[in-house]
């Protein structure tokens, strides 16, 4: 994937990663409620949103380590 997108995560400030983390956490919560209620069709959504959270958190860490702000 990095061959396609390169270093695009650097184009937006760390605050963008926090916004994305909040959004993904909300999406994950809603999808997981549906999953817990027996909707197996949202399992992939739960997994993808959880993986997105991991990725955005890693990008945030990298930007903070580089001293980026905004």
Description:
It is a single chain. Helix content is 71%, strand content 0%. With 70 residues, the protein is mostly helical. Helix 2 packs antiparallel against helix 3. 9% of the residues are buried.
What is the H/E order? HHH
Shape field: elongated
Task: Determine the N-to-C terminus distance.
Answer: 25 Å
Regions with little confidence, pLDDT below 50 for 5+ residues: none
Task: Classify the helix fraction into a percent range.
Answer: over 70%
The whole-number mean of residue pLDDT values reads 91
Beta-strand share of residues:
under 5%
Rg to the nearest angstrom?
14 Å
Counting structural domains, the number is 1
Describe the structure concisely for a colleague.
The chain has 70 residues and is mostly helical.
Question: Secondary-structure blueprint of this entry?
Answer:
Layout: H1 2-5, H2 14-36, H3 43-65
Helix pairs in contact: 2-3
What are the defining features of this structure?
about 70 residues; mainly alpha; about 70% helix; about 0% strand
């Amino acid at each position: 994937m990095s061959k396609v997108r390169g270093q695009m995560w650097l184009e937006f400030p760390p605050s963008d990663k926090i916004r994305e983390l909040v959004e993904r956490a909300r999406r994950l919560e809603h999808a997981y409620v549906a999953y817990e209620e027996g909707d197996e069709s949202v399992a992939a959504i739960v997994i993808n949103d959880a993986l997105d959270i991991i990725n955005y958190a890693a990008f945030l860490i990298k930007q903070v380590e580089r001293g980026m702000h905004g």
